[in-house]
């Protein structure tokens, strides 16, 4: 009887220690906070305003969960969904959506190596989505839509550059 109690107590202590360590590990993983996402969106909006672009901006965490969405006045309505999908795609892959476009559609007149990816619901295969990394750890992604793909991607990079010091 005493043996069983000691065994249960030991098991209970081990589970508690494991759960505590797991919780601490989760707390230590970098993430995209709302404050960081707001600063990214602000930097992108400043650039877009200077250039005369009307954009939608979506920032997601590493699990592709929306952290922030901002639509500038006069941004195309379709850009709402596209920006969110670019961010989600970049978080889920995790690489720039431009790279996915090359995989799907190819380049230099050559067919892409995996064109079927264009038919996967939720994936967006054109420029404007970039992963957000702290060192080499994915912490989220940003998706921009409303201008050309190159301009969307440029604005996404401006947003990441604006918070680069906070990511290292």
Would you mind describing this structure in some detail?
This protein is of the alpha+beta class and 168 residues long. It folds into two domains: 1-29; 31-167, Haem-degrading domain (Beta-Lactamase, 2-Layer Sandwich), CATH 3.30.450.150. Helix content is 52%, strand content 16%. The protein has helices spanning 2-28, 34-51, 78-92, 97-105, 149-162, 164-167; strands at 56-61, 66-71, 129-134, 137-145. It has a four-stranded antiparallel beta sheet. β1 (56-61) and β2 form a beta hairpin. α2 packs across α5. The radius of gyration is 21 Å and the shape is globular. It starts with a helix and ends with a helix.
Contiguous uncertain segments of 5+ residues: none
- The backbone outline, from C-alpha atoms, is globular
CATH topology of the largest domain: Beta-Lactamase
Q: Could you say which structural class the secondary elements and strand pairing correspond to?
A: alpha+beta
Separate helix tally: 6
Overall radius of gyration: 21 Å
CATH C-level of the largest domain? Alpha Beta
């Amino acid at each position: 009887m005493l043996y069983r109690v000691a065994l249960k107590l030991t098991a209970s202590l081990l589970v508690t220690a494991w759960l505590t360590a797991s919780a601490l590990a989760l707390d230590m993983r970098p993430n995209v906070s709302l404050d960081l996402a707001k600063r990214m969106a602000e930097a992108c909006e400043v650039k877009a305003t200077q250039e005369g672009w009307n954009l939608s901006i979506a920032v997601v965490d590493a699990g592709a969960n929306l952290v922030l969405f901002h639509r500038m006045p006069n941004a195309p309505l379709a850009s709402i969904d596209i920006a969110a999908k670019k961010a989600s795609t970049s978080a889920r892959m995790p690489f720039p959506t431009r790279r996915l476009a090359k995989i799907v559609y190819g380049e230099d007149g050559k067919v892409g190596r995996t064109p079927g990816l264009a038919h996967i619901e939720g994936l967006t295969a054109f420029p404007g989505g970039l992963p957000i990394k702290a060192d080499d750890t994915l912490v989220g992604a940003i998706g921009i839509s409303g201008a050309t793909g190159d301009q969307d991607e440029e604005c996404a990079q401006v947003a990441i550059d604006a918070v680069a010091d906070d990511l290292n």
